[in-house]
Amino acid sequence: MADMRLIVAGAGGRMGRALVRVISETPGAVLAGALEAPGSELLGKDAGVLAGLPENGVKLSADLWALSANADGILDFTIPGATIANVAIAAERGLVHVIGTTGLSASDDAVIKSVTSRAIVVKSGNMSLGVNLLAALVKRVAQSLDQSFDIEILEMHHKAKIDAPSGTALMLGEAAAAGRGVDLYTHSARGRDGETGARRPGDIGFAALRGGTVTGDHSVIFAGAMERIELTHRAEDRTMFAQGAVKAALWARGKTPGFYTMTDVLGLADF
Q: What's this model's pTM, rounded to 2 decimal places?
């Protein structure tokens, strides 16, 4: 089979540059396009040079329709508005759409899922093997412990991150809620401040820290009477997210249209 031709959305950003580097190192994948926001000062720049590689002749463009004419997939770690704008074009062109964008709303998710009867979408709050294993463990532990154990999720990211809680924290919260058999959004507590009263039984709590250059730290704490269980993952480099995204794209090529997650890609559905 010919190499999978991939477009990187947000190619001028930190994650976009990591994706360009990983594609260059991955057998079976080739960079077919580099997408950046209209008006960006990086438009026209060489994607390889921006990623710290030799010049590769792929220039940053704001025209996804043109880029997608000769592509098989798009790797999308951008912002919600950009991702939603990309969804219709990716579906129309028949691209595999790998989405790692965080901060998406329920209505955004509905738009994404609306195209999956005819398009292949792989979406995850985190593309790393370790975090997806963590989510599987969180679900299993939540199934095993009753509500006498309170669940708290703590995350820390670099100071430039613009959304909170992180997509990974929400993914872990969903895993905990699934283990408990409850809906996360009616059983979550966020942003405690002031005189909040006692903790509501059954809540899943979130706390977000921002500072420095932290790539991503996540802990899920099960706090019971006189004991705690803590499950933690620490990310040291964005490369692992990029590797997971490229793996997801290659896995999804030729699959039946539908909505997939990294649980499917990594074979963790029955864990």
A: 0.80
